Amino acid sequence: MPHINFEVDEEQYESLKETKKRHGLTWKGMLLHAQRELDSGPTTE
Fold first, then answer.
1. CB crowding 13-34: b at 16 or more within 10 Å, else e
2. CA-to-CA distance for 31 and 45, rounded, in angstroms?
3. pLDDT band of 45, cuts 50, 70, 90
4. What is the dihedral of CA 37, 41, 44, 45, to 10 degrees?
5. Which one, of 28, 24, 25, lies nearest residue 2 by Cα?
6. Handedness of CA 12, 14, 16, 18 (dihedral sign)
7. Dist CA 32 CA 15 (whole Å)
8. Domains in the chain: boundaries
9. How far is the C-alpha of 14 from the C-alpha of 20, rounded, in Å?
10. SS3 letters across 3-45
11. Which pLDDT belongs to residue 42?
12. What pLDDT was estimated at residue 39?
């Protein structure tokens, strides 16, 4: 199974962690939710 790894600074991590907790998501769930939101909006091409 492929893995996705990236680095964020401490402030970004804390902000992402709070959003994840507030919405009851996993890290994977947050990423998939963002993808759906981006794909459902108007394209910028």
1. eeeeeeeeeeeeeeeeeeeeee
2. 22
3. low
4. 100
5. 28
6. negative
7. 18
8. 10-40
9. 10
10. CCCCCCCHHHHHHHHHHHHHHCCCHHHHHHHHHHHHHHCCCCC
11. 78
12. 95
Sign of CA dihedral 6, 9, 14, 18: negative
Angle, CA of 42, 44 and 45, to the nearest 5°: 120
- Single pTM value for the model: 0.77
Type of residue at 6 = F
Dist CA 18 CA 4 (whole Å): 20
